[in-house]
Known about the structure:
It is built from 15 helices and three strands. It has 342 residues and is mainly α.
Amino acid sequence: MKHLIHIAIIGILAYFTGSAAHLQAQTYPFELPKLPYAYSALEPVVDAATMEIHYSKHHAAYVKNLNAALKGSKDERYTLDELMLYAGEFEEVIKNNAGGHYNHSLFWNILGLNSPFSAQSEVGKAVIATFGSVDSLNKLLYKAGSTRFGSGWAWLYVTPEKKLAVCSSPNQDNPIMDVSPNRGVPVLGIDVWEHAYYLKYQNKRTDYLTAILTAVNWEAVNKNYTEALVSPLLKTIEKETWTELSNFHEVMAGTFHPSEEGDLKPIRERSGEFLEKAKALQAGKIPASFNTPEIRKSIDDLVKGAGELNQMVAKKASDKALAKKLTELHDVFHTIQGLCRH
Ligand SMILES: [Fe+2]
């Protein structure tokens, strides 16, 4: 795995007692969470038969298939968060079923008939500040859900900049996933797979959408929202979407790791690019959570060191001297990037 993760995620997640965070910290074997209400609880919006089949057959199958795909493999160790964050690096069957398990767990949680939208709640204030009103938000969710071709989801999610936004995703993808063009932490998700509505609404997805948007448990959405704002997952996504850091990381990994094996050819060939990518990191916008004096100093140190390294290559320095310098810069880089998971 070429990506990096703060090992701290798991420990910090354990701090949260909320169901969403608890779910995300789960590892193999995954379990079907208890449905928080009776199959008939959302009638007439969702009929009991649809709810029973959706939960006890479809969601149960995602959990069963996810466990079957992970069983006995090295991927058993990953949390649900990690399976989604790096979904593109796992087999398709793992991505689809991990997404199916997470998305449905969130979906059951945000449905309910007795917790209407409140303009005074934290998410209520954010919805009004961002979209003008809950009606405007619902129109966007309706559009996202009705225009999604084939199967998928409509999402309200928190972006790495801590703003609310709406998007849709195909299949069982969601904004946590690296394969998603819209990244962030979901706080409300609407299932637009036919299995979510066909028994009652047949092919009329728009009728289903109009109805289901009246059955949102806004108290649960508010909890998801306040948790998302301080979630380590959001900070990880913020780092993963820091393009200049990823670009520099690619050159660092491609030069430092060979040098550890005694191969200095990559850094001799790429020292100019190494400097250029470090300068781009310095010139680019640093994401808010990473914009600290320590990290700004580390980036400055990286640029200075990369310039010296480039000079050393030009002067045909010894392998030993180059490896020493590159190791120093790798240490500086990790004060920015965090701990490595290879
Ligand atoms: Fe579903």
